[in-house]
Amino acid sequence: YLDVQRLAAIHNASLTVVPFTAKEGDATGLFWLGYDGTHASLLLVATDAHEYWDCDVLVRPSSAVSQTIVTSPFAAKFRVEGAAPQWSDLVATDIGEMPCSYDARVTWKNGFVIERSGEKKCTANARRNLTVHADGRVTATSLSPTP
């Protein structure tokens, strides 16, 4: 079962970006589909789904928690929260090496182009839980200390 909700499209003279949410079970993803008349590209902006990381460890991938968009020429700035374990008491050394947060500048050149900057490190316990709502909003809260 896949429930898809389309949000307001972003347009300029040569590019259309259609944001939409896709929901499966309890998980929701916010995607952008871009098309310039020749090239198409799909970008996962944020998700509250968890991916398999290691034995008994699920991790939510890096996801945007805020966005600023300029339509002409197209550019977007995301504040991204880094990968986070499902519960804050799970310790995975590889997660500790990943950035806790960073800025991402998204532009278009035959597809979405992402440039990262401003990486900050934090402990696994400082990472937050994200919720992607059907209307495309993303909220972040503290991770639960226990499963």
Distance between the termini: 26 Å
Low-confidence stretches: none
Rg from alpha-carbon coordinates: 16 Å
Largest sheet: 5 strands, antiparallel
Question: Mind explaining what this structure looks like?
Answer:
The chain has one helix at residues 93-97; strands at 3-6, 10-11, 16-24, 27-35, 40-47, 51-54, 57-60, 63-70, 75-81, 84-85, 101-108, 112-120, 128-132, 138-142. With 147 residues, it is mostly beta strands. A hairpin with a 4-residue loop joins strand 2 (10-11) and strand 3 (16-24). The radius of gyration is 16 Å and the shape is globular. 24% of the residues are buried.
Task: Summarize the model shown.
By secondary structure, the chain is mainly beta.
Keywords for this entry:
147 residues, mainly beta, five-stranded antiparallel β-sheet, four-stranded antiparallel β-sheet, 1 helix
Write the layout of secondary structure elements.
Elements: E1 3-6, E2 10-11, E3 16-24, E4 27-35, E5 40-47, E6 51-54, E7 57-60, E8 63-70, E9 75-81, E10 84-85, H1 93-97, E11 101-108, E12 112-120, E13 128-132, E14 138-142
Antiparallel strand pairs: 1-3, 2-3, 3-4, 4-5, 6-7, 7-10, 8-9, 9-11, 11-12, 13-14
